[in-house]
Amino acid sequence: MRYFVLNLLFVLSACAHTVEIDEAKEYKCGDKIVKAEFLDDDSVIIKINGNSTVLHQTASESGTRYDNSDSKMTLMRQGRDTYLSVDGTNYPLCYEIER
User: Where would I find the H helices in the chain?
Assistant: First the structure.
Protein backbone atom coordinates (compact mmCIF):
# COMPACT_ATOMS: atom_id res chain seq x y z
CA MET A 1 0.00 0.00 0.00
CA ARG A 2 2.79 2.41 0.89
CA TYR A 3 4.45 1.64 -2.46
CA PHE A 4 1.20 2.52 -4.26
CA VAL A 5 0.86 5.83 -2.38
CA LEU A 6 4.48 6.78 -3.12
CA ASN A 7 4.02 6.01 -6.81
CA LEU A 8 0.78 7.97 -6.89
CA LEU A 9 2.48 10.99 -5.30
CA PHE A 10 5.32 10.76 -7.82
CA VAL A 11 2.91 10.63 -10.77
CA LEU A 12 0.83 13.53 -9.45
CA SER A 13 3.89 15.68 -8.83
CA ALA A 14 5.08 15.03 -12.39
CA CYS A 15 1.71 16.19 -13.72
CA ALA A 16 1.72 19.40 -11.70
CA HIS A 17 3.37 22.05 -13.87
CA THR A 18 3.36 25.62 -12.70
CA VAL A 19 3.24 28.19 -15.48
CA GLU A 20 5.62 31.08 -14.86
CA ILE A 21 5.60 34.64 -16.19
CA ASP A 22 8.58 35.13 -18.52
CA GLU A 23 7.94 38.78 -19.23
CA ALA A 24 5.39 41.43 -18.23
CA LYS A 25 4.76 44.52 -20.34
CA GLU A 26 2.31 47.37 -20.43
CA TYR A 27 1.24 48.96 -23.73
CA LYS A 28 -0.80 51.91 -24.91
CA CYS A 29 -2.77 50.81 -27.98
CA GLY A 30 -4.81 53.77 -29.19
CA ASP A 31 -6.98 54.72 -26.21
CA LYS A 32 -6.48 51.36 -24.43
CA ILE A 33 -3.98 50.49 -21.72
CA VAL A 34 -3.06 46.83 -22.21
CA LYS A 35 -1.17 44.70 -19.70
CA ALA A 36 0.49 41.61 -21.13
CA GLU A 37 1.99 38.75 -19.15
CA PHE A 38 3.96 36.47 -21.45
CA LEU A 39 4.07 32.97 -19.97
CA ASP A 40 6.59 30.16 -20.34
CA ASP A 41 4.01 27.91 -22.04
CA ASP A 42 3.84 30.12 -25.20
CA SER A 43 0.70 31.92 -24.11
CA VAL A 44 -0.03 35.45 -22.92
CA ILE A 45 -2.57 36.88 -20.50
CA ILE A 46 -3.98 40.16 -21.81
CA LYS A 47 -5.66 42.52 -19.33
CA ILE A 48 -7.82 45.35 -20.70
CA ASN A 49 -10.21 47.37 -18.52
CA GLY A 50 -9.98 44.79 -15.73
CA ASN A 51 -10.85 41.86 -18.03
CA SER A 52 -8.31 39.08 -18.56
CA THR A 53 -8.05 36.94 -21.68
CA VAL A 54 -5.60 34.11 -22.38
CA LEU A 55 -4.19 34.04 -25.90
CA HIS A 56 -2.18 31.12 -27.29
CA GLN A 57 0.73 31.36 -29.69
CA THR A 58 -0.22 30.43 -33.25
CA ALA A 59 1.66 30.11 -36.52
CA SER A 60 2.86 33.34 -38.08
CA GLU A 61 4.83 34.10 -41.22
CA SER A 62 6.75 36.82 -39.39
CA GLY A 63 6.89 37.77 -35.74
CA THR A 64 4.97 36.14 -32.92
CA ARG A 65 1.19 35.90 -32.99
CA TYR A 66 -1.16 35.12 -30.11
CA ASP A 67 -4.87 34.41 -30.67
CA ASN A 68 -8.07 33.62 -28.82
CA SER A 69 -10.81 32.78 -31.32
CA ASP A 70 -13.54 32.79 -28.65
CA SER A 71 -12.87 36.40 -27.68
CA LYS A 72 -11.76 37.38 -31.20
CA MET A 73 -8.53 38.88 -29.86
CA THR A 74 -5.08 38.87 -31.48
CA LEU A 75 -1.76 40.25 -30.30
CA MET A 76 1.03 40.38 -32.88
CA ARG A 77 4.69 41.15 -32.12
CA GLN A 78 6.99 41.93 -35.03
CA GLY A 79 10.42 43.02 -33.88
CA ARG A 80 9.82 46.04 -31.64
CA ASP A 81 6.29 46.62 -32.99
CA THR A 82 3.18 45.27 -31.25
CA TYR A 83 -0.34 45.26 -32.70
CA LEU A 84 -3.69 44.49 -31.07
CA SER A 85 -6.98 43.46 -32.65
CA VAL A 86 -10.14 42.96 -30.58
CA ASP A 87 -13.44 41.80 -32.06
CA GLY A 88 -12.49 43.01 -35.55
CA THR A 89 -11.14 46.39 -34.39
CA ASN A 90 -7.47 46.94 -35.24
CA TYR A 91 -5.90 49.34 -32.77
CA PRO A 92 -3.05 51.69 -33.73
CA LEU A 93 0.52 50.57 -33.17
CA CYS A 94 0.98 49.76 -29.49
CA TYR A 95 3.67 51.64 -27.61
CA GLU A 96 5.33 50.07 -24.60
CA ILE A 97 4.85 52.07 -21.42
CA GLU A 98 8.20 52.28 -19.62
CA ARG A 99 7.94 52.25 -15.82
Answer: 2-15
pTM tops 0.85:
no
In a domain, 23, yes or no: yes
Residue 85's closest CA among 71, 74, 95? 74
Return d(Cα 37, Cα 23) in angstroms, integer. 6
Question: CA-CA-CA-CA torsion for 5, 19, 42, 84, nearest 10 degrees?
Answer: 140
Domains in the chain, number: 1
pLDDT in tens, 18-37: 889 999 999 999 999 999 99
CATH number reported for the structural domain that contains residue 34 in this entry? 2.40.128.200
